[in-house]
Amino acid sequence: MGDxxxxxxxxxxxxxxxxxxxxxGGYVSVAGQEVFLPSDELWLYxxxxxxxxxxxxxxxxxxxxxxxxxxxxxxHLYIFGGCGxxxxxxxxxxxxxxxxxxxWRRVRSQSGSPPSPRDKLSCWxxxxxxxxxxxxxxxxxxxxxxxxxxxxxxxxWDEDIFWGWNxxxxxxxPERGRWIEPLTSGRSPAPRAAHASATVGSxxxxxxxxxxxxxxxxxxxxxxxxxxWSEIVSSSAAPPGRSWHTLTSVSDSSLFxxxxxxxxxxxxxxGWIFNLETKEWTRTEHPHKDKPRLWHSACQGRDSxxxxxxxSHDYILLEDKGHCNxxxxxxxxxxxxxxxxxxxxxxxxxxxxxxxxxxxxxxxxAVETRRKTQNTHTTAE
Length: 381
What we know:
This protein has helices spanning about 335-345, 355, 360-380; strands at about 15, 20-25, 25-30, 35, 40-45, 50-55, 60, 70-75, 75-80, 85, 85-90, 90-95, 105, 120, 120-125, 130-135, 135-140, 150-160, 160-165, 170-175, 180, 185, 195-200, 205-210, 215-225, 230, 240-245, 245-250, 255-260, 260, 270-275, 280-285, 295-300, 305-310, 325-330. By secondary structure, it is mainly β. The strands form ten sheets. The chain has a five-stranded mixed β-sheet, with no helix packed on it. Strands 22-26-25-24-23 form a five-stranded mixed β-sheet, with no helix packed on it. Helix 1 (about 335-345) crosses helix 3. The relative contact order is 0.11.
């Protein structure tokens, strides 16, 4: 029997694969102090039942962190970067999700150099490789080769060490253990952090984020085959600028954006769909307008649902509280007929009790699972 729900948190990592959404890391505020959550535990959210499981982990466990970048490749959860008690890091770890011991290992590169230490970056997955973009971190003065790719934070520097935002692109090939920094062409995004990204086919999209002292909602696309950047100019009014929001692919031609922190530092609860074919933004209706979120996570679930977990409903740099642990489900596409039928029958299980027993085993299990999920949600409410 699993724990009821994962603890509230912000700045965590979440990625979905198959039946589960996997959640790791992040931090919470305790008595006004930032406390990093245990790094030796992994939380599993069942996308079918909406129930949580907690699993302990073993091996070379990463230090507790927030702002790490996570993704799943070939059954392994990869964690790169983040900020811990000693500041930003550029360490790389992987966790086997198909091994019952859930064992961590530190990823050693065989060639190339990893990105400099950073957090609040993003990544795309393409052809079994991880492509990391942007973030906030530090470099030595001698390592800042291009001022256009590293914007120095004038409020944060220490002798020969400079902190700032970057727009660098780094690729890691896990099969060869190789880092490369591909030479990109076209108009690249300005250096940024706390932005959002999503992958659609062979294209990586990045939206908004913190750019020095402002926040934006611009959209750029990187062709992951040719390494060519292009800016996508909206054909409609764009949403207000924001950071700490999420962007999720929900079809071959649309992205779903939720939440974030506005230019005037207000937590947002807006949901937007960006149509990649028409280049139009459309504000969407949803049932969670009273639940603003920033520095949360978002992953695609069943039938193009988007599962938003955790984050904060307050401006955490001004008043670090309000961390959340609920999972918000957003329907972004019409449900298939079979799901509508399952939902209808399971919600009226008493009426259809005899008919349910006559269903084929696989369909009967699906209906019973839906019924248990609905009962759980009703009890929780």
